Amino acid sequence: MSVQELEKEQAPKQGGFGPLAWLRWAWRTLTSMKTALILLFLLALGSVPGSLVPQRGVEPDKVAKLYEQSPALAEWYDRFQLFEVFTSTWFAAVYLLLFTSLIGCIIPRTATYLRELRRKPPAAPKHLSRLPHSASFESGLTVEEAARRLRKLRFRVVTGDGWVSAEKGYLRETGNLFFHVALLGILLAIGAGSLYGYRGNVLVVEGDGFANTVAAYDRFMPGNQVSAESLQPFSFTLSKFKVAYQVAGDKRGQALDYSAHLKVNDTPSAPTRDFELKVNEPLEVDGTQMYLIGNGYAPVFKVTDGKGQVAFEGPVPCLIEQKTTMTSGCVVKVPDAQPSQLGFLLRFLPTSVPLTNGDYASAFPGELNPEVKLLGAFSGDLGVRSGKPQSVYELAEPEVLKKLKPLVMGSAAPKPLAVGQSLELPDGLGKLEFTGVKQWITLQTSYDPGRFPALVAAATAVIAIALSLMIRRRRVFVRTSGGRVDVGGLTRTEGSAAGFAEEFSDIVKALSAGEKDVR
Amino acid sequence: MSAEQLAELSDLFVVAAVLLYVVAMVGFAIELAFGRARPGKAGAAERAEVKQPVTVGAASSGEDAGTVSEAPVAASADAPVPAPPGGAVKAGTVALVLAWLGWAANLGAIVTRGLAVDRWPWGNMYEFVVAICFAAVTAFLGTQLRHNVRFLGGFVMVTAALGLGLAVKVFYTTAGPVVPALNSYWIAIHVTAAIISSGLLTLAGVSGVLYLVRGDGMSRLPSRADLEKVAHRAIVFAFPLWTFAVIAGALWADRAWGRYWGWDPKEVWSFITWVAYAAYLHAKVTAGWRGKAATIVQLVAFGCLLFNLIGVNIFISGLHSYADVP
């Protein structure tokens, strides 16, 4: 093949270099194996920054951090699209060229293959003993019988005057072609998935519900062709979330199992069904999957303001500060409090234990002795109604925070609150009550119509590559003359001669076996 | 036996395996050192070259009855290599027995660890590396059953011993449960395929390094053609398996993380490794790339594999950070 390529590459140089010749030269260069090799290297090399530079699609927070820490470097990274390597123009250029080169290779090979399929094995050479594998034995084996036995071994057989020629292993090239076509299939499936699929993230607290609409998501990432109406209309309520932890040994505190109990309605009119959502066991509703990807605590607070009215009541999802003990940071904003707005910074300790220095810390991620420690209480305008976007996990922007009036601060704060306990704010400004503990989970929804086609293509690729690499193309010849039978064999696959020796000796055995079969 | 006792037994088995591998390595080294030097192109190359001129119907006339090989025995087996002195052969045989014992100890370590933790024993870096060493030695001993590749013994042994040493010294983790994400039947499919293919690719990598170390001339090291053949065969076997491991990983990711492919660092590097080995297979059939160039490509790919197995877990954080490296 490579020799042919060389010839082809040299051919147009003899004629003038018209535009057509240039085109032909470009196409041949692109579809040559050497170019394919270089493109494969570029593809591998191009992927490397994708693992070293944080990717927007995977770790957006790290990208933001890099922009803060070294804006100049981040700028340069961005200029070369290094924050989205796998959707960048240059990466696309490499793989599109590679796939073009692939198509340019598959089409002629398929044509050759189809011709080969129809072609009969060549006539047997005269001197079989000169072949890499050969044997002779005395037998009355006829040409017809030899052909029959070889056919039984699934060889494609041609007979002539005193000789049989047989060939086998066509599946090798079949596998090779199917493998490369399957790779194209995977690429197309991924493309379809990113156009017509969507992903969404949402946080749900125990007792709350979720309905699959765009507005319900905290973050929604649709493909280009996704409309709000195309979302599957399922809904559920999270009735209970449970975590099992290792309680003893040096892996104490490691999570063993997460399970979320859901009450699911597949469509608004469908009956409610129970579902236990676990890691590795997503909820599936008509092609849309919902996955359990995170969890945390949401202590329940009740805030009574200076006028004696309940200004806030409900669970507050807290961000995990330390994974091993599930120590979490919570923010409670009470813009409805009178006479002035109230804000609280708290730390939630699932298993609170006193330290020798008088502070408190969590000793275990499970909820054995849940307490909340007040870090700070403030009054003043929280800026919630300023119209600027706000984070629920941050009390206020630093400049707003400076203007707030601290009521109780960290070190002066009293002992942590246990469930049912409350804290009176000074100057009769109100009361904070810790009434209970709930848990939150984060879920990811994904709908990817390319999923199943990708699976089919991938399975085809695995089977085809195995066929293409394991099967060898081999030929066996038999010549009979006056009671003597010569058998010769060769493989047309590089590096498989040794493996063929065994099969060849089996073939010879089958040919020389039992005279009773010889008629 | 209690779980703790089983875990301790497993640790002892690992130490035993290291010792046996080291002694076996010495045996194999003696065999090589006192054996005869071989030319650069022995064995396979000669046979392959003979093949060419006869392939298309030989046109010489007359039946030559002189070269009739006897009965249904396959002709032209391995070309005869001059036999080394008896003592060296003996050392090699002893080494082979010790290697099998080391293999058994390695297997014992994996089985007892699995019983101690009551799950598939490849949930963290330590268990994973122990399993890959086992797979590499299995690949070598399995090949040895059918073809004589004793010349590779010493180098495979030293690799396995170093691998186990690294596992014990750096990655050691006490026996225990794994995080919920790893509690899936996919661990049996995905990680097992990754381990077996990594073992085979390690065998290929060892052959590749020897290929480069050894020149083209006479040397006590195995011939380049033989080394190339072993490497090629291991990769031909491992590549579909690696493809399968990556795809099984994608299927698991689809169950656990809500997407089958998300360019997580581990996914990126498995992809790079896959592309690099694909490049090797293409290089093997491209003029001007066979031999040394293909071997270099293979070693680059092996480097990617090693970085993926070890480097990614240590240097880069991602969804695959189960390594539990202390």
TrEMBL record, chain A:
Keywords, comma-separated and alphabetical: Cytochrome c-type biogenesis, Membrane, Transmembrane, Transmembrane helix
Any GO BP annotation: cytochrome complex assembly
Membrane-crossing residue ranges in chain numbering: 36-53, 90-111, 177-198, 452-471
Locations listed in the record: Membrane
Domain ResB-like positions: 33-504
UniProt keyword DNA damage present: no
Name of the protein described by the UniProt record: Cytochrome C biogenesis protein ResB
Automatic annotation (TrEMBL), chain B:
Keywords assigned by UniProt, alphabetized: Cytochrome c-type biogenesis, Membrane, Transmembrane, Transmembrane helix
Transmembrane segments: 12-34, 94-116, 122-142, 149-172, 184-213, 234-253, 268-287, 299-323
Name of the protein this chain belongs to: C-type cytochrome biogenesis protein CcsB
Domain Cytochrome c assembly protein: 122-320
GO terms classed as biological process: cytochrome complex assembly
Origin: domain of life: Bacteria
Gene Ontology cellular component annotations, sorted alphabetically: plasma membrane
Annotated organism of origin: [Actinomadura] parvosata subsp. kistnae
